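Limitations
The structure tokens in this dataset are predictions for the assembled complex, not deposited experimental models. Users should treat interface geometry with appropriate caution, especially where small molecules or nucleic acid strands are included. An illustrative entry is reproduced here so readers can see what is and is not provided.
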Amino acid sequence: MSAQSALLKEIAGPAGQDLNAQALRADARRESLRLLALLAPSLFLVCAIIIVPIGWLFWLSLFDETGAFSAANYARFFEQASYIKTFISTFKVAFIVTGACVLLGYPLAYMLSQLPRRAASICLIFVILPFWTSVLVRTYAWLVILQRKGLINSWLIDLGVISQPLSLANNFSGVVIGMTHILLPFLVLPLYASMKTIDTDCLRAGMNLGAGPAATFRQVFFPLSLPGLASGVVIVFVLCLGFFVTPALMGGGKVVMWAMRMEQTTSLYSNWGAGAALGVVLLVVTLALLGLFQWLLGARATGVWSSR
Amino acid sequence: MNRIRNVSVVAIAGLVAAFAVPAVAADTITVASWGGTYQEAQTKAFFKPTADALGITIKEDTTNGLDDVRLQVTGNAVKWDITELGADECARGSKEGLFEKLDYGIIDKSGINPKLVHDDWVGISYTSVVLIYRTDVFGDKGPKTWADFWNVEKFPGRRALSSSQATETLSVAALASGLPIDKVYPVDVDSALKSVDKIRGHVDAWWTSGAQAMQLVKDGEVDMASIWNGRAGTLKKAGAPVSFSFDQGVLTADCMVIPKGAKNKEAAMKALAMFVSPQLQANLPLYVDNGPVNEKAFETGKIPPERIKDINSAPENVKKQVLQDAEFWRDNLVEATEKFNNLIQQ
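Predicted assembly:
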């Protein structure tokens, strides 16, 4: 607005300044109202589908079995050590899987972004293809590959590399492998999209100024790809926190994630509040972490955007 | 006497059908069960003959258990007229008032264990939790009792137990601590938990579904496991190198209920009466290993004698097993399950 009025001052001169400014302000108001009207249906949907049910979830979590107002559903977390343990292992899995996705996904997205368009779109199909199969099927497929008498172990034993089968499934490593595979596209796609928008002139300019390929990548390409990486990381991390099927099947009951605990609690207690409280705790902690993430990345991201 | 009664039941059903067909031809009820081969067997044993006899259409759905019913009833969106549950779920749901009262003027309860006949729920079939082991690992000298299963020195190997069915695993743990089958109930939860504590470090996988238990054993991921007899029988029939018996099995009943607010209550009541009748109950073991809940089914002559020894609820086999006490778990399940989860998730 201030930039606009400064501009106005120059164009209109001191006399017509007020009048024009008013007209412009009115125009801006109309514009934003029109935008609001256009947004109204989706705002309404967000409200009806997300805000109201979540508010209800909060509300439900405050009542015990008898319908009385109480904090019993939350007190359970502190009374029983296993809830804390479940919580920690959920975040541990989320951090490790997100890290694995970044390590595998960044080079992949980088390669895709450097390929000619035709080749890239063919490769992208391979990235998207797994989405066409259900998570359940893919998880069972991993079980077939990773279990004691599975493909990997029988090959390694036949090749004489190992004599005892490796424990790859029904434990922590199984969960991480299965989840990384399923979540990888969620990191690659936004990252690829943002890498494609990086202006190659910037890279050429860097080279022109004497930076080698490595320095250009480090000082120009990588910072410019950060917003895409950040959104990929956030998507993967949040999806991890709510994962159910893969850890339930690949963890052999030894890796219990928060969503599995929610399922147990919901079927165990007759009041929805017990399960709702778990949902509330996860939601609050996730939002807090996202806020922190945003804040940490905020400085970097603004720097990146303003440099463009 | 029984034969005559049974014949008359069928005759009455036939009469009902003959008169009722034009009037209630549009009657449709929805029955929910567990899906899979079990429900396919129920379709052939119960649903199809009932639909034919009563002239109604039986639509099928699958359930996840009590929380599904609770969701439908408390949300005023009851879409099922009859649903199957585990007996402990029936007992808990009954306490929560989720089911319609059953009319034992229509449903003939004779032949059903009185422990499974209640105001608003009735038994429908039996499943046993049995000990299965791989014969390619142990030959025929595998663990035969739960005490053997707990004995990691004498029977080294990989083990799986159920984590989703805490009540069954606790019963098994009580047996493992040396209790005779008639002393398991009422379960001393704390000492059963101590027994679980002894084995939990040696459990390589905790299963949460029958399919998972089957897969673990079939693929050799574990050498011994607790498993439902239906799944064990399927493995054996498929040629997997496994062995199991009903000794020290834990007999758990499934039950059926009419959820509160069911839209076709009357037709559902008649259908349920047919499902538990000896004639249709006797069909069940022809298709699946889950035993009939009505012991008169064994007197119908429909079940071949050589098949009877493989049925978990045959009188001979019942003697070897512990019957899960639904009413005990109604009052103790939540606390015991919470403690059990805490223990194994430590």
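Some entries come with short summary sentences. For this one: Confidence is low (pLDDT under 50) at residues 303-308 of chain A.
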